[in-house]
Amino acid sequence: MIYVIGGPTGSGKTSLAIALAKLWQAPIINADAFQMYQELNIGTNKELAILKPFKPYLYDQLSPTQSLSVAMYQKEFRSLIETLIPKHPKIIMVGGTGLYMKASLYDFEFAPQEVSIDLTKFDTFDNTKLHAHLASLDLEASQKIHVQNRRRVLRAIAIHQTTGKTKSDQEKAQKKALLYPATFIGILPQRDFLYQQLDQRVDAMFKQGLLDEVKTLVKKYGDKLLAFQAIGYKETIAYLKGKTTLDEAIQLIKQSTKRYAKRQITYFRHQLPMKWYGSGKEAFEDLTT
RNA sequence: GGAGGCUUAGCGAAGCGGCCAAACGCAGCUGACUGUAAAUCAGUUCCUUCGGGUUCGGUGGUUCGAAUCCACCAGCCUCCA
């Protein structure tokens, strides 16, 4: 059985995972996209010191120069889980990236290899024209994707170009079924409380030296990494470039963090069959009695 | 003490007699999500029993009709003393 622990950032998922892992002697698999990166420690709230001893999988193992993706995560997760299931009756999966969980646990199928295709010819298309082009290829997908969501429109076009099949057909071939026995546990503290915790956490990150961490990373790798899409990093980099004051950067990080938490709540609520608890403690008690 | 300017929804800011419950931006709230997901995108935000009801610093006035014009009051700003 895979115990999937989800919920917004700062809700106490990690502590619950550790408590359960100790009790059950269960392995932990990380499902937090940015915590897969090495060297992004403070800003991704990694809690290395307490989590590392449990040797979590898919965690702190990727060079910041690499670009991760759902497909890549899914692939690694699937091969990993095959080796873990025979040995462990209970497995814990924790993280905040709902899509990675869903894509791994359900029968999502991605094209085997992402052929690098040239999409630059669409640069001259405005959003409306691009969307119309998708409609001519895959009407169904075009109806689901908003005109302004250029990234998704482009992706749907890319799927057609690389596989010759439409995105809708690719998805229709899936049963949307769970591949492994899993139970979904969601932690959702009271909103005001959560937001307050998140604000405090941002202040704490700066006290722990986020600024130095970012400076070191930028010095080492430049400032263009995909990994720097992470909240806390992109704002700090903007500050280092003189685009904002430190104070503004901190405010922006707090704001983005709270927005992010809200998006996570929405995703887990509507995309996965969570059983919700107000805190990790409540979940722990319910699961262990 | 004198001269002028300003006051619009949570904030910033348009509007300058009817087409104004009031553009737009921000923030907030809600949602979408199948290879960038800590990303990308959308909807919505005075109250409402959806008939309507109360708004544009305050009070009074002009007008068929006022956020828009007039008077007085209050607060803020600039300049002169």
Summarize, please.
With 289 residues, the chain is of the alpha/beta class. The protein has helices at 13-24, 48-51, 70-84, 98-105, 127-137, 139-144, 150-163, 167-172, 191-207, 210-221, 233-240, 246-271, 280-288; strands spanning 2-6, 28-30, 91-94, 182-187, 275-277. The chain is 51% helix and 7% strand.
Question: How does this structure look, described?
Answer:
With 289 residues, the chain is α/β, with parallel strands linked by helices. Helices cover 51% and strands 7% of the residues. The chain is built from 13 helices and 5 strands. Strands 2-3-1-4-5 form a 5-stranded parallel beta sheet, sandwiched between helices. The structure holds one RNA strand of 81 nucleotides.
> What structural category characterises the helix and strand content?
alpha/beta
What is the percentage of strand-forming residues?
5-15%
Number of separate strands: 5
Q: What pattern of helices and strands is seen along the backbone?
A: EHEHHEHHHHHEHHHHEH
Mean pLDDT score: 95
Strand order of the largest sheet: 2-3-1-4-5
State the share of residues found in helices, binned by percent: 40-55%
* Rg computed from alpha carbons, rounded to a whole number of angstroms: 20 Å
End-to-end distance, in Å? 17 Å
Helical region count?
13
What's the arrangement of secondary structure elements?
Layout: E1 2-6, H1 13-24, E2 28-30, H2 48-51, H3 70-84, E3 91-94, H4 98-105, H5 127-137, H6 139-144, H7 150-163, H8 167-172, E4 182-187, H9 191-207, H10 210-221, H11 233-240, H12 246-271, E5 275-277, H13 280-288
Parallel strand pairs: 1-3, 1-4, 2-3, 4-5
The structure holds one RNA strand of 81 nucleotides.
